[in-house]
């Protein structure tokens, strides 16, 4: 075989190979997770008692979202081996062969640096440092260290996902009080029941990947009990938040209704046996999971409503 | 050979290149906007006065 024929065959192979488009690189940033980050960070920013210039606020949210996306890309780079095993994740850009792992790492690192520096410049360096810590926490502490080590991985991962409203608040105020940590706690306590419900009806996924999900290590009965315990603790926290600086009558109404529904769902999950669940194809678990999405959105929506109505004399308790 | 002749690679990567181009353009707009906001903000005015004094 001559050099010319080798080059020709290599070129032909390259031209047949899939060419990653812009959308494939964008998919590395986990757009759906980014939308949650954008929303919760926006609520944190707007609920803060310090007004922010709209353009600075826009930039703050954008860079927090890019930071969240960057950590998503680094997560996909590290977890490519388990992503290709799980049905839910095998279509992601790296396991599907659209993007090289090295490209994902480079994109993640570059966007991490960019987002932290730009958030620091646009708002304040406390917020920038907090974003850097969040990326470090999600990528190193959760993804690289604890995700494959402990069945409490979801609880730890939930902490990383709960930081954006705190960063939004710090971006606006440059300081820390109790209120952003209440928003943090809301997302933190919400994550385990949300993901464990998913793990109950997507069960083979986590088993196949060997991720020590609670359903695998402690059994499905224990997972059902855990969902109920976390939901009960979450309800106390969520309703209690109504009496803080970010709460008010609108939030209280939303929290009471949603937590009653959420508790009812968790109770139903805890009481069910595996045979019950198999019989109706995990109907109760699926409904609980759907409700959990609405739960977080409406709680943060209510905090936002209280903040936006305050200037007109309606929001909050005053 | 004309300088304008485009390689097949250019067509294949058009979407990606367009995306990168638009992203960079958006980044320039953001830097420009932030500069305007920071320069016209009270913080910048105070620091300028401090320098002048």
UniProtKB/TrEMBL annotation, chain A:
Q: What is its EC number?
A: 2.5.1.141
Give one GO biological process term.
heme O biosynthetic process
Q: Which PROSITE patterns match?
A: UBIA (PS00943)
GO MF, one example: protoheme IX farnesyltransferase activity
Subcellular location(s) per record? Cell membrane
Q: Please tell me where this protein is predominantly located.
A: membrane
An example of a Gene Ontology cellular component annotation for this protein is:
plasma membrane
For this UniProt record, the keywords arranged alphabetically read as follows:
Cell membrane, Heme biosynthesis, Membrane, Transferase, Transmembrane, Transmembrane helix
Looking at the UniProt entry, the stretches that span the membrane are 33-49, 55-78, 99-119, 125-146, 153-175, 181-201, 227-244, 250-270, 291-309
Enzyme class, first EC level, given as a word? transferase
Mode of membrane association: Multi-pass membrane protein
In the UniProt record, the signal sequence range is none
Q: What else is known?
A: Carbon 2 of the heme B porphyrin ring is defined according to the Fischer nomenclature.
- Biological role: Converts heme B (protoheme IX) to heme O by substitution of the vinyl group on carbon 2 of heme B porphyrin ring with a hydroxyethyl farnesyl side group.
According to the record's subunit comment, the protein's assembly and interactions are: Interacts with CtaA.
Name the family the entry cites.
Belongs to the UbiA prenyltransferase family. Protoheme IX farnesyltransferase subfamily.
Question: What is the protein name stated in its UniProt record?
Answer: Protoheme IX farnesyltransferase
From TrEMBL, chain B:
Which domain of life does this protein belong to? Bacteria
Which residue ranges run through the membrane?
A: 20-37
Q: Which UniProt keywords apply?
A: Membrane, Transmembrane, Transmembrane helix
Descriptive protein name: Cytochrome C oxidase assembly protein
